[in-house]
């Protein structure tokens, strides 16, 4: 297996993990709406995954850049920029006092990221297979 | 009707700004009150200032005789709960078309005014509730199947009527269920049985966190506070001797006090770890008030003396709050913070960020947002352990209310602000001691949750006020203050098929006597299909109050400019919607409103001109934040006063033809004089005027006031010798002339009422026509109908509105 194959294999695994993280976030927000969890617990739980999610995505994007996979990098750049912008404005953490106001928005954001990770999952899978075939 | 049309045809002329002079001149006397279902052309002259008329609308749209018991107290009085519209349309489309924001203002726990009926307490074998939606039985349910079952008025499920409704097992006699308070009163209190408790009801816990740093000692705050607390110890609610108390003082360190009843003298324990605040000992810091009374008294008596020479400028409020929370969080309770400067040591230190060059610019909003999330996060951790924080802030310069208010805001507390406090000035110390004593002595609810239920099809979308929102419709209130009001925004999610829409607010709380209670308020509103009914049943004061609260919210989440624009746009929207659906094209040049909304533009203008929202570079950010904090918790009647101050002529109250005559009623209360329009044209060089904005009182003295009046009011021979600024009138003596006596009584009555409404003791400022110009400008800023700084006069504002309405065509 060549470098590119390995990279996209990692991409497939990483996007699958991020995908599951988003599913988890969405489930938690739905729980909040159904009153199964209180906002303080929700924020404490979700906030510990905010940085790992961003770091995971940023690391993957960096690897794509280093490998020179321009298309894959460009695909990920907007989300990376969005994450950086959120941290810069100190809006990346969930706030228990605002959560009911922002929950629908947060949920929509999670759905969009979910769709994005799903798309990247299949794209990386395709690129991995292409790389493996090229290797043969 | 011919007269009316004639009036309309005249008025299109009066629209130009040049006509502003004649606006007051031609219509010297105030217009007669208007009846419902009649347009009012606002351009025709000033409107009668009469807010109360609109509150009787509810009785007109939905007579209490339609309730199950037909009792006159079946529906909530507006002081408890009022809706912006008293006839709810069947669909959201009609509501949207009317553009009126649909919301409620609720004040579930309040101090009663003299003459008001006590809230009935029900101690029944069982709290009767709907099986499905958990609504409490109320006057608006319907009895079916020969009265054996009742139909819930919120979800329409039928439930069984318990037997004790008709049969008293103790006396073995039939009873009339229609006499039961839960069926005759809209506001009742149930004694809650065991299943409403997750733990035994908590006792009252009060922790005083007192700043003893250099500034606090210098201003005399520590001495004044110790004295006030000492004298109110006996009035703190203390049923069955359960009340607990703790005192922590702080400068750059924390000082705890061992108040154990076995000690002769309280012991001081100093803690200086800011990184990880801990309690120096696990017991005897929080003690029973009754058992340790002498230790507490001795400590409070010595406190000012102990720190008299303290020169430590350090201020570790953040550490203090963290430690205080640790101390009382096993039980819950109240933390009362008395702080005289900006925290500068340890966590939660704040920067002095006030910058006058930012005021009035688009960067101003940054000063209104908290500079650190520390205090908000602390509040979030306080809320689950039932700890509430009240802030008494004294400051010579910058207090950063925007940041510190976060503590009170999310724990259902309140912020009290004493600018440039100096205990040597008698007015300052009277205000502070009166408010603190009242604060400590008033009844309070503990470990409470508030839930509002509504008829099917109505959804609550947003809440405003001091609380922590624990789930989509559950407000967590560690303490229920008698001052705070809450606002709710509503939406219709489906077509309303029932003839009534009901809102039920329930506050489950522990009263200060250790009983678990549920206060239930039920408001029923009429349902209509016609948009005309929506307009004619709208409540202008409630609408303005809701707009004010939304404005505060908008400022804190976005920008103050957006908040101002939103208020003005909403007003234009509402009047435009009225123009579109209710007026004909012949009336296009006029500015028409329904009679019940005729003061809405004036209230909105007042809102745009008040300290919280005025577009100016002269309001310090602390003052803005303070006013915003007040608006966010004020009930509707206080908001009306804050945005449209009450203005009275005092020199004529004793004239033979004065209306109403100044005679005390059965309760010993004086009637308030007739309210004047807020315009400087009402001022008279020979007159004395009183202006009340809810928080301050102004006594305006003309330059040519007759010496007799000056003598009666100020005990001085002539106007030039009247002291201006913050002042108090000399106490009534046997020699005081009748006018002086009435005025003093009126001011005392206003202050007494205000203490009951809001725990606010208004300062009195004397403003002389020929006195200090800055004081005069401040006074004039309250005259809403006049031009002030960049803000238009009322006639100019109405013209702006009329121009804004050009894009709406009549129906």
UniProtKB/TrEMBL annotation, chain A:
Superkingdom of origin organism: Eukaryota
Biological processes per GO annotation: vesicle-mediated transport
Membrane-spanning segments: 7-29, 58-82, 114-134
An example Gene Ontology CC term for this record: membrane
Family per similarity comment: Belongs to the cornichon family.
Subcellular location: Membrane
Coiled-coil stretches: none
The UniProt record lists the keyword Transmembrane helix: yes
Membrane-topology descriptor: Multi-pass membrane protein
Name of the protein: Cornichon
Keywords, comma-separated and alphabetical: Membrane, Transmembrane, Transmembrane helix
From TrEMBL, chain B:
Ranges of residues in domain Sec23/Sec24 trunk: 201-437
Single GO cellular component term: COPII vesicle coat
Keyword tags: Cytoplasm, Endoplasmic reticulum, ER-Golgi transport, Golgi apparatus, Membrane, Protein transport, Transport
SUPFAM superfamilies: beta-sandwich domain of Sec23/24, C-terminal, gelsolin-like domain of Sec23/24, Helical domain of Sec23/24, vWA-like, Zn-finger domain of Sec23/24
Subcellular location: Cytoplasm; Endoplasmic reticulum membrane; Golgi apparatus membrane
Annotated ranges, domain Gelsolin-like: 671-715
Cited PANTHER family: SEC24-RELATED PROTEIN (PTHR13803), SECRETORY 24AB, ISOFORM A (PTHR13803:SF39)
Descriptive protein name: Uncharacterized protein
Organism: Caulochytrium protostelioides
């Amino acid at each position: 297996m060549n470098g590119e194959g390995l990279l996209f294999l990692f991409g497939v695994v990483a996007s699958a993990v991020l995908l599951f993280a988003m599913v988890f976030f969405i489930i938690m927000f739905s729980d909040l709406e159904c009153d199964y969890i209180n906002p303080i617990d929700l924020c404490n739980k979700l906030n510990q995954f905010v940085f790992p999610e961003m770091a995971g995505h940023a690391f993957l994007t960096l690897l794509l850049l280093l490998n020179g996979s321009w298309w894959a990098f460009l695909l990920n750049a907007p989300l990376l920029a969005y994450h950086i912008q959120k941290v810069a404005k100190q809006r990346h953490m969930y706030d228990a006092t605002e959560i009911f106001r922002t929950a629908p928005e947060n949920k929509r954001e999670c759905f969009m990221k979910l769709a994005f990770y799903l798309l990247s999952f299949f794209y990386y899978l395709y690129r991995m297979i292409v790389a493996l075939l090229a290797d043969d | 009707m011919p007269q009316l049309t004639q009036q309309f045809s005249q008025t299109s002329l009066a629209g130009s700004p040049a006509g502003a002079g004649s606006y007051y001149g031609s219509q010297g006397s105030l217009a007669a009150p208007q009846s419902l279902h009649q347009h009012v052309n606002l351009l025709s002259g000033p409107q009668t200032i009469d807010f109360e008329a609109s509150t009787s609308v509810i009785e007109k749209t939905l007579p209490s005789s339609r309730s199950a018991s037909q009792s006159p107290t079946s529906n909530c009085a507006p002081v408890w709960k009022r809706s912006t519209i008293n006839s709810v349309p069947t669909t959201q489309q009609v509501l949207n078309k009317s553009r009126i924001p649909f919301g409620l203002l609720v004040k579930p726990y309040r101090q009663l005014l003299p003459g008001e009926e006590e809230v009935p307490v029900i101690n029944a074998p069982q709290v009767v509730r709907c099986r499905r939606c958990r609504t409490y039985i109320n006057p608006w349910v319907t009895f079916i199947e020969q009265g054996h079952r009742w139909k819930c008025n919120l979800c329409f499920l039928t439930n069984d009527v318990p037997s004790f409704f008709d049969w008293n097992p103790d006396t073995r006699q039939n009873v009339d269920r229609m006499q039961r308070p839960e069926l005759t009163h809209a506001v009742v209190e149930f004694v809650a049985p065991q299943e409403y408790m997750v733990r035994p009801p908590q006792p009252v816990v009060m922790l005083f966190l007192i700043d003893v740093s250099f500034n606090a000692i210098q201003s005399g705050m520590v001495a004044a506070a110790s004295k006030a607390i000492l004298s109110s110890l006996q009035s703190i609610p203390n049923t069955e001797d359960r009340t607990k108390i703790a005192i922590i003082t702080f400068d750059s360190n924390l000082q705890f006090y061992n108040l154990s009843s076995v000690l002769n003298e309280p012991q001081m324990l100093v803690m200086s770890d800011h990184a990880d605040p801990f309690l120096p000992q696990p017991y005897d810091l929080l003690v029973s008030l009754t058992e340790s009374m002498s230790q507490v008294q001795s400590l409070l008596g010595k406190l000012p003396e102990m720190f008299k020479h303290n020169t430590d400028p350090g201020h570790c409020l953040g550490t203090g709050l963290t430690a205080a929370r640790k101390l009382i969080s096993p039980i819950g309770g109240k933390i009362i913070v008395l702080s005289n400067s900006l925290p500068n040591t340890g966590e939660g230190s704040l920067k002095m960020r006030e910058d006058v060059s930012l005021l009035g610019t688009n960067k101003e909003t940054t000063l209104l947002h908290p500079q650190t999330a520390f205090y908000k996060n602390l509040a979030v951790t306080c809320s689950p352990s039932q700890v509430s924080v009240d802030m008494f802030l004294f400051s010579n310069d910058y207090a950063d209310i925007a940041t510190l208010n976060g503590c009170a805001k999310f724990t259902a507390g309140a912020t009290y602000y004493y600018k440039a406090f100096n205990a040597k000035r008698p007015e300052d110390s009277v205000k502070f001691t009166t408010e603190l004593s009242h604060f400590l002595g008033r009844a309070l609810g503990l470990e409470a949750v508030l839930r509002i239920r509504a008829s099917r099809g109505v959804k609550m979308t947003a809440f405003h006020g001091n609380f922590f929102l624990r789930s989509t419709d559950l407000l967590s209130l560690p303490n229920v203050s008698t001052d705070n009001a809450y606002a709710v925004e509503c939406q219709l999610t489906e077509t309303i098929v029932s003839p009534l829409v009901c809102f039920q607010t329930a506050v489950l709380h522990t009263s200060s006597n250790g009983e678990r209670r549920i206060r239930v308020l039920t408001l029923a509103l009429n349902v209509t299909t016609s948009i005309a009914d929506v307009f004619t049943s709208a409540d202008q004061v409630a609408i303005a109050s809701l707009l004010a609260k939304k404005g505060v919210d908008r400022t804190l989440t976005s920008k103050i400019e957006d908040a101002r624009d939103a208020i003005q746009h909403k007003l234009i929207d509402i009047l435009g919607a009225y123009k579109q659906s209710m007026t004909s094209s012949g009336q296009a040049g006029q500015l028409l409103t329904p009679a019940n909304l005729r003061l809405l533009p004036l209230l909105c203008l007042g809102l745009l001109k008040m300290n919280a929202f005025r577009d100016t570079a002269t309001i310090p950010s602390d003052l803005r934040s303070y006013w915003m904090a007040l608006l966010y918790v004020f009930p509707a009647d206080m908001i009306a006063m804050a945005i449209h101050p009450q203005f009275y002529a005092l020199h004529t109250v004793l004239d033979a033809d004065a209306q109403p005559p100044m005679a005390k009623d059965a309760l010993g209360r004086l009637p308030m004089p007739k309210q004047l329009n807020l315009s400087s044209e009402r001022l008279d060089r020979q007159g004395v005027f009183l202006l009340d904005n809810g928080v301050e009182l102004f006594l305006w003295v003309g330059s040519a006031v007759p010496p007799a009046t000056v003598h009666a009011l100020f005990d001085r021979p002539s106007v030039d010798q009247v002291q201006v600024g913050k002042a108090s009138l000399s106490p009534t003596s046997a020699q005081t002339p009748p006018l002086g006596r009435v005025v003093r009584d009126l001011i005392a009555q206003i202050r007494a009422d205000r203490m009951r409404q809001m725990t606010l003791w208004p300062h009195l400022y004397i403003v002389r026509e020929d006195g200090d110009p800055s004081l005069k400008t401040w006074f004039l800023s309250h005259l809403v109908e006049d031009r002030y700084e960049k803000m238009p006069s009322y006639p100019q504002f109405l013209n702006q509105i009329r121009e804004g309405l050009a894009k709406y065509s009549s129906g």
